[in-house]
Amino acid sequence: MEFECHYIIIGEHFNLVLNVQIDRKGALDKTHTRSRNLLIEFMEAQNVIDIWRVQHPNTRQYSWKRNPYPICSRLDMFPVPDSIQGYAKCSSVGPDYRTDHSLISINCCFVDLERGPGYWKLNCLLLIDPEYVNLMRAVIKEYCDQHKTDGLTPDLDWEMLKMEFRRTAIAYSASKKREQQKEQNI
Fold first, then answer.
1. 172 lies in which domain range?
2. Which helix (H) or strand (E) holds 178?
3. Are 116 and 136 in contact (CB under 8 A)?
4. 34-63 burial, b for 16+ CB within 10 Å, e for fewer?
5. Which of 4, 41, 51, 137 is the one with CA 20 to 30 A from 178?
6. Is residue 133 part of a domain?
7. Which of 94, 19, 12, 97 is nearest to 53 (CA)?
């Protein structure tokens, strides 16, 4: 699996344990092996860690219990990207209330994250601006003329064209904003 976002935090009841020796008590030392292996493979591929286990490496605390039998497991967890491990200030397994599962929580502080240029989103009002629409038609024509013999895959061709759309929309919007500011100062 591939994801295009930088940070993934999953809070889930996985119905399996990653380490049967420390995450299970009173039951057989086995788990859903195929599902466990898939989860571990996913976590390794995405560079994701079990933050609670990292913060509590030897603690035996469980998020699920079966009463009246003394069977407990840590089935619920927050896998997080290793890169934000420093932002996860604490994680905990809390008390249960009228359920066989305990509350799990994670406290993250992202105040210290460096801000990038941000997420760009098209201003849809540009689509009713005839000047902008004509400009984009010209961009498409110019792009097609320049790249018709490049031999790009359709996916890459589309991504390159979207990049041109974004670049042109940002430049056009900035130009319009400057014009409006000049008019307001007159």
1. 124-179
2. helix 154-185
3. no
4. eebeebeeebeebebbbbbbebbeeeeebb
5. 137
6. yes
7. 19
